[in-house]
Specification:
CATH class of the domain at 2-177 and 221-248 in chain A: Alpha Beta
CATH topology of the domain at 2-177 and 221-248 in chain A: Rossmann fold
Number of strands of chain A: 16
CATH architecture of the domain at 2-177 and 221-248 in chain A: 3-Layer(aba) Sandwich
Strand content of chain A: 15-25%
Helix content of chain A: 40-55%
Shape of chain A: globular
Order of helices and strands of chain A: EHEEEEHEHHEEHEEHEEHHEEHHEHEHH
Largest sheet of chain A: 7 strands, parallel
Oligomer: homodimer
Strand order of the largest sheet of chain A: 5-4-1-6-7-9-13
Distance between the termini of chain A: 33 Å
Structural class of chain A: alpha/beta
């Protein structure tokens, strides 16, 4: 099987690559070729008997996408994108990468013109939704994004559905919830604290909680995000139907419940490293974020997330800390 | 006041131009400049004391949009577009005109960079919605288009909302229902019969009704469509809020009720010219079309359609037949 991953140097891209290498293939089919692409050089793992390439560049550049699909990969994971905060600060870069890059890839596939019809798995986001929200956001809630990033993801979803309907490729869009616990260091994203309040104390470091414990949000682990991608690659297109974009499941918990889970998993000495220090700016942003999703279609199609925040913490410990 | 109309040579564009000329302005402000643009030459009316220009070309061409907004029009009516049937047959043309053309116009405004922030009125369509539908389609029904045209209109709506949110212009998207009675001749559009069964008998001509009388659909007259555009030009942006795309009101009637209205307005001799001749192909298409809309937001913002199909027929007689 030939596989292409765009955005392969990002956190999810790296973990997806590791998973495919560990499994030795995708859906039981061994890897013949694995092509990794990103704006910075992705790490190319060694896979015995397979061709592995690492490519660097801007997907929106002329002919870049043609070159990426030259080997006619059967499965394309399109993860490449500028993140929410950057797309808001740099309007032109956001549209260039998230819209033009996505469209360039889709167009290259359409224009191949030799009967090529790959499975395309596109990582969308719950940022396609905008406040105000009901208590539980149904699968058919209307998308009214309140960020440029969410707008670009919504346009990607619309293109994916149309290109799939026309038979140019067989697309699945997966709307990821907040990924938690993100490995690495705290960053300036408003959502950073959801991961930091778990990751930093587990590493013996103090951390600030900038919002009230009552804040409710939906999370999935990096391991689950990779699981969604692998599952999406193998789905029967007819079973999905014309509505190609699916809201992924996750664990809906309050920040207080996150902390209780941390105490159950790691003890009171760890939880004591969390210092509550309300930040009105962060809270005012977070109040406009979606809380809980129904995700009925995705669950019915077999997408599985953790069943508790305890499991999310244990996944983080196993995947990030056991190696260290 | 300086006004720009794209798609000015189309049916709605011509009627909008006539209305503005007849009113001598827009929202009580006299016309200083009226710029008309289309892919075919629009007719430039003579307006005493005003500059009128008629421009021809492809909006997606390099620099075309810059040239269009060179005079910094305060109101831009963006009507240009390839229609549904053509966008489905010619995929590339549909995306070029409906997506690239729209984006080129929006980008030209953004890049003006001199504080320019016009009101942009964009004609979207109920084609952004796709079956299955509830009995009454609410304002917040999720858009899942089932045509490339509907996809392109949805993308235009998303861009309009984001460019407005960012303050690059002050946009209003209006989703038009089926325009009925369309003047002119029957065409190959599946929706053609909705107008033909009124227009042709009124002109003394026989006509075929290809669907059962029970088919329910929502209509607005060309006069109302122009009224929506003029009303949208004068709306207070703050009153609209961040959800910039509005489903216009209309008259929801069955085909049987259309024919009853025709009999009331024009008599039995006219109605006898309608021959029922079911066409399974047309019916199978029409069954996937939306029927009735709530349009609560648009009505609350002052958009007004006819209150009966009788009024739609009378508008057609006054606007199209009284002159003949």
């Amino acid at each position: 099987m030939r596989i292409l991953i765009t955005g392969a140097a990002g956190m999810v891209g790296r973990k997806l690559t590791e998973r495919i290498v560990r499994d030795g293939g995708l859906g039981g089919r061994p890897i013949a070729e694995l092509h990794l692409h990103d704006i910075v050089p992705p790490h190319a793992p060694d896979i015995p008997g397979a061709t592995v390439s690492a490519m660097t560049g801007d997907l929106a550049d002329e002919n870049a996408a043609d070159w990426l699909i030259a080997s006619r990969p059967a499965v394309i994971f399109h993860l490449a994108g500028v993140v929410s905060g950057e797309a808001e600060v740099d309007f032109e870069k956001g549209y260039r990468v998230n819209l033009d890059g996505t469209r360039a890839l889709f167009e290259a596939i359409r224009q191949a013109g030799d009967g090529y019809c790959p499975r395309v798995v596109f990582t969308s986001s719950i940022a396609v939704f905008g406040a105000p929200f009901p208590d539980v956001i149904p699968d058919d809630f209307h998308p009214t994004p309140l960020t440029s990033y969410g707008t670009q993801k919504l346009i990607g979803e619309a293109l994916l559905a149309d290109y799939s309907r026309r038979g140019f490729f067989d697309g699945v869009g997966i709307r990821l919830p907040t990924i938690c616990v993100r490995p690495g260091k705290p960053n300036k994203a408003a959502s950073s604290f959801f991961s930091s309040i778990i990751r930093e104390p587990l590493a013996g470091l103090e951390v600030v909680l900038p919002v009230p414990r009552s804040v409710l949000h939906t999370h999935a682990s990096p391991r689950s995000a990779v699981g969604f991608l692998v599952h999406a690659a193998g789905l029967d297109g007819d079973a999905i139907g014309p509505r190609r974009n699916l809201t992924m499941p996750g664990v809906a918990v309050t920040v207080g419940e996150q902390i209780e889970a941390l105490e159950r998993v790691a003890g009171n000495n760890v939880v004591r490293l969390i210092r509550e220090e309300p930040d009105e700016t962060v809270w005012s942003i977070v109040q406009n974020w979606p809380t809980r999703f129904a995700s009925e279609r995705a669950r019915a199609l077999g997408f599985v997330a953790e069943d508790s925040f305890d499991a999310i913490i244990r996944a983080h410990i196993e995947d990030e800390m056991a190696q260290a």
